[in-house]
Specification:
The protein has 105 residues and is an all-alpha fold. The protein contains five helices and no strands.
Length: 105
Amino acid sequence: MLKALFVVVLAAGAPAAAAQAPTPERGAALAEFVRQDCGFCHGLHLTGGLGPSLAPADLADKDSEYLAMMIVHGRRGTAMPAWRGHINEDEARWIVEQLKKGLAK
């Protein structure tokens, strides 16, 4: 029991693995998704609007796994919808990686 708890604690503190890159076609579709669907609220250049800025400098100190889960599950009580019907968790992680690198525009 104690060993299992120790493994869970270690895993919780471990950094998340990098997202598996989508196929080029899916990557292009996800990039378009970010520009169109995310850009609708986060601004044409993703620098803010109804939603906050998604610029790399503004995301630098944000937890990537949290951001990915917010993309998939949304934020209750805000305009942030759950996108789980359109993208999966690994794709959300990839989007966050791209946004943090400034490559998703």
